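ARCHIVE CARD
Drawer: 12
Card no.: 0347
Subject: one protein chain, sequence and derived structure
Cross-reference: see card 0346
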Amino acid sequence: MTDNRRGAFYMILAMLGFGIEDAFFKSATGSGGITPGLGTLQFGLLAMALYALYARLSGVPVWTRDYLRPGLLIRTAFEITGRLFFALSLAYTPLSTTSAILQAAPLFVMLGAAVVLKEHIGPRRWIAMSIGFLGVLLIVRPSPSGIEANAILALLGMIGFAGRDLATRTAPTHVHAAQLGVLGFAVVSIAGLVILAFEPGSPSLPSPKAAALICGTALCGVAGYTAMTFAMRTGEVGVVAPFRYSRLIVALILAYTLFGERPDTMTLTGAALIVGAGIYSLLRERRKMR
């Protein structure tokens, strides 16, 4: 098996892990067995503990002063935003809608790279980006009365993740993947505390089923994050990265089978435009690099 095929395989495994992670979290919080804040906190603490163990086994310290570098501090701020609103979106918005909007993150990263990092973006990729944004509009469907509140949660979560990915480009390259995992899931825990602070009433213990689902969320999240790290370090990025859009396929299947969701034609059309524009942009970037 070539490096490119191996990298693509790891990326598909990562997206499968993330898709199941989202379904577990939505099932736990949607059933009322655990609140979004407490679920996010439990998820973050469990996954952080797993990555701390991974760091120790890899012979790297769990804590590093690099966490306090400006690049990683900016990355942390964006990740808190992304995790906070994405968790709320999973709890209150259809899984298919949340996952479709999330697919626009690479397009926003490209826009940020052009505006903030002054990277050159050719006219074809600008057109592809515009088509992707049109897909987002088809999903959220703004009207004179405004955008549906639940769709705003997904949009803010996506923008947070796009900012995190953009900030990762300026983060120290010598920070171990396990350390990034510890930091990333520590941020998830902080996001859980923020949500918990605004939830009405006093926190109550989760039901056994909900707690078990959150444990599954943490395991799938760690597995997906690790597989994605392997994917991005195996083969050419331009070949491997487009397979990240397989997450939407996983999400649509799970949304249909587990939650009975039936996305309408406009949602599916918007998702297709976002995925098509993203894949085209990645392929253009690969061709440019060559």
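Annotation on reverse: The two ends are 22 Å apart (CA to CA). The longest helix spans residues 3-30.
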